[in-house]
Amino acid sequence: MSDWWKGAVIYQIYPRSFKDSNNNGVGDLTGITQKLEYVQSLGVDAIWISPFFKSPMNDFGYDISDYREVDPLFGSLDDFKNLLAKAHSLKLKVIIDQVISHCSNEHEWFAQSRQNRTNDKADWFVWADPNEQGGPPNNWLSFFGGSAWTFDDRRGQYYLHNFLSNQPDLNFHNEAVQAAQLENLKFWLDLGVDGFRLDVANFYFHDKQLRDNPVFPEGERSTVGVTDSNPYARQSHIHSITQIENIAFIAKLRALTEQYPDITTMGEINGEHSLDIMADYTAGDKRLHMAYTFDLLGDACSKQVVESVAEEFNQTLKDGWACWALSNHDVQRVVSRWNQGDAHPDFALAAMALLLSLKGSVCMYQGEELGLSESDVEFDDLQDPYGKPFWPEYKGRDGCRTPIIWDEAEAFGGFSEVKPWLPIDKQQLQLSVKRQQQNPSSMLNKTRRLVKWRNQQNALRDGEFTLLDLPKVLAWLRTSENQQMLVVINLTPEQAEVELPFANIHVHANSDFQPVLEGQHLSLPPYQVLFADVQ
Ligand code: BGC
Fold first, then answer.
1. Which pLDDT does position 302 carry in this prediction?
2. Residue 394: pLDDT above 90?
3. Does domain 9-103+175-454 have CATH number 3.30.70.260?
4. Does the annotation mark 268 as catalytic?
5. Span 126-141, average pLDDT
């Protein structure tokens, strides 16, 4: 088995917004296929495609009504086979998103389950009687706001949903549910995919006794990635998610993937104590290959935060493996989130260098290579069901999901010939792919150079990580058998002057950064980075 995924750079494609090939306003699989040479030109190892399966699209594909069908909006199974074949011919691995913890309320399993309490699938979802007052069985909350329970008139019971009420949670305590979902994964493995991104991989099981979650004292909140006004942050979710039974199921899932060559699994881990969960879920070789972390997807960008996250991972993960991201389809783009309004032209590249030099694999989100910032989507254009209830304090996830602009001269930015499902961001026209392709010093071309160079550095791909204690800057060593690489990043708007603790330093000639080294004294202008070999 090859460990191609270790230290790999994975490009995340949100299909609705990547490229619309059939002009219905929504991106699709053939659109992705058409742009695979572009993806390959970034130097990445793999793509992760967000869900494209049959779905009523209440959560834009994260609510699946048929796990083995492609939604007609995105194309057909043949379109997917073409995509896979072309990706493989370009030496790109293909990771698909599997949302197995919950499905859509339009899935036939749920339609049957809600009929009565005695049918074959009666126990496939988490059903419970009302409490004595007729209310929900316990205090569990939905990630998207409100109770995690919805009453079903037909069955006369509540059902559990950690997300929208259209996303009922499957009951993984039922072995038949586990077997059915593993069969669904097998379907895609047989087609030749290279791995799975596992949506909310710590949410599969719930506490069978349905005990209440503890509520935090006034003023305290959990660290999970939800907005302050969301009551979900007021509870500790010790009973609704991350149950001990999860591990045994993950082991079954891993065993299935071991029957195929070179498969990877990347579990999304969200919740309190995510680091410990990640360590647990990726320990040894019988669980997940990698765990995807939210730790750098939050608001804080400071030396202290990045250092403590990187170091804690280093200490806790042991033989486990992380996958890092600074942007994705669920959070504000990093340029807006971390750059705090100061749109310095070099910030995006410095953030990219940070991402590419941590110990772990990397997910780069579409548009990150273009240095895109968050789009401002008006309330009237808003699509995300999570954004609507919390507007305007929290504007939902549409601002990072607007269509990619391929060519600013074409109508709708070359994304589509008709009005897209989310508006084209006019501010992003000047950052179009076409314009950046033509400019050797664009963020796009710098990203291409950086990724390709980074992938040739053994130390950066899978070397050990040692944090260095230097004032003002972020600094660490990555060490592999034949290389010791020093990384120093100035992620602030001020010039940094630093004495390096090494005498024998060979700076990597990377003309896209301007570190100035005199002896051991390093001058790093704002958002500049030093990569150097040290002996
Ligand atoms: C996905 C979200 C989705 C949620 C429910 C996540 O973590 O990334 O986009 O809404 O799971 O499936």
1. 86
2. no
3. no
4. yes
5. 97
- Residue 217 CA: distances (Å) to CA of 14, 23, 142, 222, 227: 38, 52, 19, 11, 18
Is the confidence at residue 526, as pLDDT, over 70? yes
For residues 142, 144, 146, 152, the Cα torsion angle rounded to the nearest 10 degrees is -70
The CATH number of the structural domain formed by 463-534 is 2.60.40.1180
- Interhelix angle for 274-282 vs 303-317, to 10°? 30
**Residue 486 backbone dihedrals phi, psi, to 5 degrees:** -95, 130
Q: Is the pTM for the entire model greater than 0.85?
A: yes
What are the Cα distances from residue 293, in Å, to 144, 270, 277, 304, 307?
A: 19, 7, 10, 18, 15
Active-site residue identified among 28, 45, 268, 369: 268
CA of 80 to the centre of ligand 1 (A): 22
310 — phi, psi (to 5°)?
-60, -45
* Boundaries of every domain in the chain: 9-103+175-454, 463-534
**Per-residue confidence (pLDDT) for residue 354, from 0 to 100:** 97
Which protein residue has the closest C-alpha to ligand 1 atom 5? 62
Ligand 1 contact via 268 beta carbon (within 6 Å): yes
